[in-house]
Design goal:
The strands form two sheets. The protein has a four-stranded antiparallel β-sheet, with no helix packed on it. The protein has a two-stranded antiparallel ribbon with strand order 1-4. It is an alpha+beta fold and about 170 residues long. A hairpin with a 5-residue loop joins β2 and β3.
Protein backbone atom coordinates (compact mmCIF):
# COMPACT_ATOMS: atom_id res chain seq x y z
CA UNK A 1 0.00 0.00 0.00
CA UNK A 2 2.82 2.39 0.88
CA UNK A 3 4.53 1.54 -2.40
CA UNK A 4 1.39 2.35 -4.41
CA UNK A 5 0.98 5.66 -2.56
CA UNK A 6 4.65 6.50 -3.24
CA UNK A 7 4.23 5.74 -6.95
CA UNK A 8 1.13 7.94 -7.17
CA UNK A 9 2.89 10.77 -5.35
CA UNK A 10 5.97 10.47 -7.60
CA UNK A 11 3.85 10.49 -10.75
CA UNK A 12 1.91 13.54 -9.54
CA UNK A 13 5.13 15.43 -8.83
CA UNK A 14 6.53 14.54 -12.26
CA UNK A 15 3.36 15.73 -14.01
CA UNK A 16 3.37 18.90 -11.96
CA UNK A 17 6.97 19.61 -12.95
CA UNK A 18 6.08 19.26 -16.64
CA UNK A 19 3.12 21.61 -16.31
CA UNK A 20 5.18 24.26 -14.45
CA UNK A 21 8.03 24.90 -16.88
CA UNK A 22 9.12 28.49 -16.10
CA UNK A 23 10.81 29.01 -19.50
CA UNK A 24 7.68 27.91 -21.34
CA UNK A 25 5.50 30.02 -19.04
CA UNK A 26 7.65 33.10 -19.69
CA UNK A 27 7.43 32.58 -23.47
CA UNK A 28 3.64 32.29 -23.29
CA UNK A 29 3.39 35.32 -20.98
CA UNK A 30 5.51 37.35 -23.46
CA UNK A 31 2.76 36.90 -26.07
CA UNK A 32 0.46 39.08 -23.97
CA UNK A 33 -3.22 38.57 -23.40
CA UNK A 34 -5.93 37.70 -25.87
CA UNK A 35 -7.12 40.45 -28.19
CA UNK A 36 -10.18 42.28 -26.92
CA UNK A 37 -13.37 40.46 -27.87
CA UNK A 38 -11.59 37.36 -29.15
CA UNK A 39 -11.86 34.23 -27.04
CA UNK A 40 -9.70 31.16 -27.25
CA UNK A 41 -10.37 28.97 -30.26
CA UNK A 42 -9.50 28.70 -33.93
CA UNK A 43 -9.57 32.47 -34.57
CA UNK A 44 -7.41 33.63 -31.69
CA UNK A 45 -3.86 34.99 -31.80
CA UNK A 46 -3.37 35.34 -35.58
CA UNK A 47 0.29 35.76 -36.46
CA UNK A 48 1.59 34.31 -33.20
CA UNK A 49 3.62 31.08 -32.79
CA UNK A 50 0.81 28.51 -32.45
CA UNK A 51 3.00 25.58 -31.40
CA UNK A 52 4.25 27.48 -28.36
CA UNK A 53 0.99 26.52 -26.63
CA UNK A 54 -0.27 23.78 -28.95
CA UNK A 55 2.73 21.56 -28.29
CA UNK A 56 0.93 18.56 -26.78
CA UNK A 57 2.30 18.98 -23.26
CA UNK A 58 0.11 18.13 -20.32
CA UNK A 59 -2.39 20.86 -19.53
CA UNK A 60 -2.01 22.59 -22.87
CA UNK A 61 -4.64 22.90 -25.61
CA UNK A 62 -4.74 20.30 -28.43
CA UNK A 63 -1.46 19.53 -30.18
CA UNK A 64 -0.75 20.87 -33.66
CA UNK A 65 2.03 19.59 -35.92
CA UNK A 66 1.94 22.57 -38.29
CA UNK A 67 0.05 25.83 -37.75
CA UNK A 68 0.18 29.46 -38.72
CA UNK A 69 -1.54 32.48 -40.18
CA UNK A 70 -1.68 33.74 -43.76
CA UNK A 71 -2.27 37.47 -44.17
CA UNK A 72 -3.39 39.31 -47.28
CA UNK A 73 -0.60 41.88 -46.86
CA UNK A 74 2.39 41.95 -44.51
CA UNK A 75 1.57 45.45 -43.27
CA UNK A 76 -1.38 44.77 -40.97
CA UNK A 77 -1.04 41.90 -38.50
CA UNK A 78 -4.66 41.73 -37.45
CA UNK A 79 -7.66 39.41 -37.87
CA UNK A 80 -9.27 41.70 -40.44
CA UNK A 81 -6.22 41.21 -42.72
CA UNK A 82 -6.34 37.41 -42.62
CA UNK A 83 -6.42 35.59 -45.94
CA UNK A 84 -9.51 33.50 -45.20
CA UNK A 85 -10.01 30.58 -47.57
CA UNK A 86 -6.34 30.31 -48.58
CA UNK A 87 -5.17 26.76 -49.19
CA UNK A 88 -1.84 25.91 -47.57
CA UNK A 89 -0.26 22.95 -49.38
CA UNK A 90 2.56 21.18 -47.54
CA UNK A 91 4.81 18.38 -48.78
CA UNK A 92 7.21 16.53 -46.51
CA UNK A 93 10.55 14.81 -47.11
CA UNK A 94 8.87 11.53 -48.05
CA UNK A 95 6.66 13.18 -50.67
CA UNK A 96 3.53 12.90 -48.51
CA UNK A 97 1.38 16.00 -48.69
CA UNK A 98 -1.44 17.66 -46.83
CA UNK A 99 -3.56 20.73 -47.51
CA UNK A 100 -5.22 22.96 -44.92
CA UNK A 101 -7.63 25.83 -45.51
CA UNK A 102 -7.32 29.04 -43.52
CA UNK A 103 -10.26 30.32 -41.49
CA UNK A 104 -11.70 33.86 -41.48
CA UNK A 105 -8.66 35.39 -39.72
CA UNK A 106 -6.14 33.47 -41.84
CA UNK A 107 -5.31 30.80 -39.24
CA UNK A 108 -4.80 27.14 -40.15
CA UNK A 109 -3.62 24.13 -38.17
CA UNK A 110 -2.83 20.46 -38.71
CA UNK A 111 -3.30 17.98 -35.85
CA UNK A 112 -1.31 14.74 -35.45
CA UNK A 113 -4.45 12.78 -36.40
CA UNK A 114 -4.54 14.61 -39.74
CA UNK A 115 -0.87 14.49 -40.74
CA UNK A 116 2.51 13.97 -39.13
CA UNK A 117 5.13 15.29 -41.53
CA UNK A 118 8.70 14.12 -41.92
CA UNK A 119 10.86 17.25 -42.01
CA UNK A 120 11.84 19.22 -44.01
CA UNK A 121 8.55 20.48 -45.45
CA UNK A 122 7.96 22.64 -48.51
CA UNK A 123 4.94 24.95 -48.64
CA UNK A 124 2.86 26.82 -51.15
CA UNK A 125 -0.23 28.94 -50.60
CA UNK A 126 -3.07 29.31 -53.09
CA UNK A 127 -5.18 32.42 -52.60
CA UNK A 128 -7.41 34.23 -55.05
CA UNK A 129 -6.12 32.22 -57.99
CA UNK A 130 -2.48 33.02 -57.24
CA UNK A 131 0.03 30.49 -55.89
CA UNK A 132 2.88 31.72 -53.70
CA UNK A 133 5.69 29.24 -53.04
CA UNK A 134 7.87 29.52 -49.96
CA UNK A 135 11.46 30.01 -51.13
CA UNK A 136 13.00 27.85 -48.40
CA UNK A 137 11.81 24.81 -46.47
CA UNK A 138 10.55 24.32 -42.93
CA UNK A 139 13.36 22.48 -41.18
CA UNK A 140 11.92 21.34 -37.86
CA UNK A 141 9.32 23.64 -36.28
CA UNK A 142 5.83 23.63 -37.73
CA UNK A 143 4.92 26.97 -36.13
CA UNK A 144 5.05 29.45 -39.02
CA UNK A 145 5.45 32.46 -36.71
CA UNK A 146 8.57 30.84 -35.25
CA UNK A 147 10.35 32.34 -38.28
CA UNK A 148 7.69 34.59 -39.86
CA UNK A 149 7.29 37.35 -37.31
CA UNK A 150 7.01 41.10 -37.50
CA UNK A 151 8.97 43.09 -38.51
CA UNK A 152 10.77 41.66 -41.50
CA UNK A 153 14.52 41.93 -41.16
CA UNK A 154 17.72 39.92 -40.83
CA UNK A 155 16.11 37.39 -38.46
CA UNK A 156 12.67 37.11 -40.11
CA UNK A 157 11.19 37.24 -43.60
CA UNK A 158 8.18 38.93 -41.99
CA UNK A 159 4.65 37.59 -41.66
CA UNK A 160 3.30 35.08 -44.18
CA UNK A 161 1.45 37.20 -46.75
CA UNK A 162 0.07 36.46 -50.20
CA UNK A 163 0.23 40.02 -51.56
CA UNK A 164 1.52 43.49 -51.02
CA UNK A 165 -1.87 45.23 -51.04
CA UNK A 166 -1.62 46.33 -54.67
CA UNK A 167 -2.52 42.94 -56.14
CA UNK A 168 1.14 41.96 -56.45
CA UNK A 169 2.65 38.88 -54.93
CA UNK A 170 5.78 39.19 -52.78
Amino acid sequence: MKRAALLVASASMALGALACDPVHSNEVDALGGEASGVGTGPTHRPGQPCLLCHDGKIGDPPQFNVAGTVFVTPYVIAPENGAGGAIVKMTDATGASHAATTNDVGNFYVTPNEWTPAYPITVEVDYGGVTTTMKSHIGRDGSCAGCHFNPAGPSSPGPVAVGWGDGGVP
